[in-house]
Amino acid sequence: MRKFSSLFIGATLPVIVGLVVTGCKTEQKQAAPAPAASSMQSSSTTTTQPAAKPAPAPATSTAQATPAKLPTIRVKAGASEAFKDSAGNVWQADQGFDGGDVVARPDAQISNTKEPGLYQSEHYSMSSFSVKVPNGKYVAKLHFCETFEGITGKGDRVFSVNVQNGQKMIKDLDVFDKAGGANKAYVETVPVDVTNGVFKIDFISNVENPQINAIELAPAS
Predict the structure, then answer these.
(1) Contacts from 195-199 at CB under 8 Å and sequence distance 24+?
(2) What average pLDDT does the structure give for the chain?
């Protein structure tokens, strides 16, 4: 009975030892699990960057440009130098006329005005007057006074005035008649719309020569 046990134990022991050793070798040969990928690497690899948005187009301004301020033009016809009126306004010396001649009558006693000096000179026998100005709406004041001693009554001097190419036609103007006699100031006020950069007056003779004492062009209010 003991012999049988010894033999049995001796026969089986190597098998058990072999199994244990073999199991250890098997465990050692198992591949270590691959390390998990870094979350930062995974994020940078799999995250899709959003497409760049196009730059917005510059906004278009709807503000209107402020129009340039319109000038005031004052000319004292027949004057050789500038004239300052009682309000401090400066009137330029004679200029802008086409043809004709000038005369000054500094001793003339002028009524019907606060500015008698404005009417003591004149330009006469001209065909036109013109000045370059910005386009816009103006009011023209044409100053007349009959100071020529050769004109003694109604009908002695008659002429027409064409303002801004027909915007206003003053036909058969008789300053002596309109003013009520000699040496009396008379003013024609005319609204004007300048669209070609030039303000112009044409004078048309009828009886005697046309004449004028001063011209004022101011922006319409």
Answers:
(1) 195/135, 196/135, 197/132, 197/133, 197/134, 197/135, 198/130, 198/131, 198/132, 198/133, 199/73, 199/130, 199/131, 199/132, 199/133, 199/138, 199/140, 199/164
(2) 81
